[in-house]
Write a structure and sequence with these properties.
- The chain is an alpha/beta fold and 289 residues long.
- The longest helix is centred in the C-terminal third of the chain and has 24 residues.
- The chain starts with 6 loop residues before the first strand and ends in a 13-residue tail after the last helix.
């Protein structure tokens, strides 16, 4: 769907097999910035590049016109289709320097952060053309410019992009939603990143990887709700932990999921790690202050 004059949003649906008998439905948004050329925010997964190609055809464009893929971070559902897209278009690839190793050496990611069906999600290694850093402005083409906002927490090198002119903020996985599963390396770093996003002024539209487009007053409301959800998770962790020096991550994860009524099937080692990042801060009643 078209979101603003230059921006289109595509929800890419897919499934992951987490056991021989269980498939989990997932989705991720890929965004198109359309001008003289086409520029993508994230690349989806390897097995659903067809959805990106079909949407390009729908709006009268083609894969050969893709000039840039700007990654918010290097997790498989965001960079998995990159190799296929780059091989068909010759596009340049942007990502924060801290995420670069996982893009250029995907087997390293498979070892350091294994996920089910990694090979189906990620097509392979891609050379990064331009590592980006906080505060940089990247010209996509005349009249279309992205400002880079470093928002670590979900991953060390996660970034958001602000499309100047349209004032569209692409947030990747920087935000935690109340209906979502908490995945971040460090809750306090995630909190700081959300607060950094709150300082971005005059945002006309917020586009995350897991939510519908948010406009106007909705933008600030969603950011506030994100902070509130992180606080809710923190309270659930505090309620579950009796001895911070003897916490079993699996038991903590199970208890928090039950308390927050999250689906048990989504509990895994990465989520447990996210919850464990609250433990050093249990003395804080309010982590958002």
């Amino acid at each position: 769907m078209q979101v603003t004059e230059h921006v289109h949003a595509l929800r890419v649906n897919y499934e992951i097999r987490v056991s021989p008998t269980m498939l989990v439905k997932r989705f991720v948004y890929v965004y198109f910035i359309v001008g003289e050329k086409v520029h993508l925010i994230d690349a989806g997964i390897a097995s659903r590049v067809d959805a990106i190609e079909a949407y390009l055809a729908k709006i009268g464009r083609s894969m050969h016109e893709v000039a840039t893929v700007a990654l918010t971070h290097a997790h498989p559902d965001h960079m998995g289709g990159l190799k296929t897209i780059q091989s068909r278009s010759g596009c340049r690839v942007l990502v924060h320097a801290l995420e670069r190793p996982w893009v250029e050496h995907t087997r390293l990611q498979a070892v350091e952060r294994p996920v089910p069906e990694f090979e189906r999600l990620v097509a392979g290694d891609v050379t990064v053309d331009q590592p980006v850093a906080h505060g940089e402005c990247v010209e996509l083409e005349p009249g279309l410019e992205l400002e880079v906002i470093h928002t670590p927490g979900h991953s060390e090198g996660s970034v958001c992009y602000l499309l100047q002119g349209d004032r569209v903020l692409f947030t990747g996985d920087a935000m935690a939603f109340a209906w979502g599963i908490p995945i971040y390396d460090d809750v306090m770093v995630s909190l700081a990143s959300v607060k950094r996003l709150q300082c971005v002024t005059d945002v006309a539209c917020l586009l995350s990887s897991w939510d519908e487009p948010r406009y106007g007053e909705d933008v600030s409301r969603v950011l506030r709700e994100c902070l509130a959800y992180l606080q809710t998770i923190h309270e659930a962790v505090r309620a579950q932990v009796t001895d911070p020096h003897a916490v079993d991550p699996a038991i903590l994860c199970k208890g928090v999921f039950e308390q927050l009524k999250l689906p048990a099937v989504a509990a895994n080692a990465r989520v447990a790690q996210s919850l464990m990042s609250h433990v050093p801060h249990l003395a804080l009643v309010d982590i958002t202050g």
